[in-house]
Amino acid sequence: MKILIDAFGGDNSPQDVIAGTVAAVKAKKGFTAVLVGNKELLDVHLSRYGYPQDRIEILDAKQVITCEEEPTVGIRTKPDSTVCKAFKELKDNEEAKAFVSAGSTGAVLVGATLKLGRIKGVARPALCPVIPTLNGKNVLLIDSGANADCKAINLCQFAVMGTVYAKAMGVESPKVALLSNGTEDEKGNALCHEVFPMLQSMKGINFIGNMEARDILSGEADVVVADGFSGNIALKSMEGAVKTVMYAVKDAVYGSLSGKLGGLFLKRRLKKLKEKFDYNKRGGALFIGVNKPVIKAHGSAKKETFKNTVLQAVSYAEFDLADKITAALIESGVASAK
Questions:
Q1: pTM for this structure?
Q2: Which residue of 13, 138, 174, 320 could cross-link 166, Cys pair, CB 3.0 to 4.6 Å?
Q3: Cβ neighbours of residue 153 under 8 Å, at least 6 residues apart?
């Protein structure tokens, strides 16, 4: 099994990408990491590390699609870019099982859709991060940014893909909720009103109704379905809120002598709380709905995040979601004809 990694994607590339990849290779056996990028530069960086020489390879790619470029133009005009070379390898090489990148989100999503292709029956792939919850479980938020404007059929398919994904993670009968501005059945915009009864009647979907954004972290649902615009706002609001609370707690603890004394007793619990909601521990968001796993890591990801994202990619490759998603879409009656 080979996992492809965009060595020049993200704010902290290639140093943290390489460091995280080396750490992942040392942490888990059974896969080969393929760094995609300028071979001469990567050879120099890799020479500083000790690692199993047969576990890390390089796929030479001299170009990079930046976040400032229009994604479609970048994919079309830069065939030697890390993203294009990775998707070609992913499509052509049976041993290549997944791709990880912290680079341009648009380029990764466009490249995955155009170069790798959608799973049979899927109209639109979606970004689906794993979010920790208060009760120690995880919740999948789908979509969190790939599709700003959606139709009802897209959200129904997101519910199916999220359910298949959650089952692959060990949830027997995933509870599916629809992101809305209230929990009552009649709440929501026109799209929610159209989707709600469809989700209620779909086979294979354990639909529990509407859910407000403030309840996503409660753990009451295993899958929360949203259009990419609303889902992205919800995700970033949660990230910002958690970060703000952590800073506030730190300030309260270290802002006075009494706080410091109390902090001595709370230090271990506060550390556990921080780790519980640290996105770095969970890696990136799966771009679900394309033929092989594509994981988008945060643009500011560092060594630890890359390590966990690479390990995450190995697990996703083992899930073998494609056939399961196609079958579930057909069973639910929402498979796309194209």
A1: 0.89
A2: 174
A3: 123, 334, 336
Cα–Cα distance, 267 to 273 (Å, whole number): 10
User: Rounded CA gap, 102 and 7, in Å?
Assistant: 9
**CA gap 294, 316 in Å, rounded:** 9
Residues in contact with 180: Cβ distance below 8 Å, sequence separation at least 6, in sequence order: 187, 188, 192, 210, 211, 212
Q: Where are the beta strands (DSSP E) in the chain?
A: 2-6, 32-37, 56-60, 96-101, 126-128, 130-132, 138-142, 175-179, 206-211, 223-225, 285-288, 294-296
- Give which of 164, 116, 155 is closest to 323, Cα–Cα: 164
Distance of alpha carbon 337 from alpha carbon 5, whole angstroms:
32
Name which of 89, 32, 31 is nearest 60 in CA terms.
89
- 180, 207 in Cβ contact below 8 A? no
Residue 234, token pair as written in the block:
């919800």
List Cα–Cα distances, 335 to 9, 200, 293, in angstroms.
Answer: 33, 17, 20
Could you read off the pLDDT of 299-327 as tens digits, one per residue?
888 899 999 999 999 999 988 899 999 99
Q: What are the C-alpha distances in Å from 39 to residues 43, 55, 78, 172?
A: 6, 16, 17, 45
pLDDT above 70 coverage of the chain, percent: 91
* Coil vs helix vs strand at 224: strand
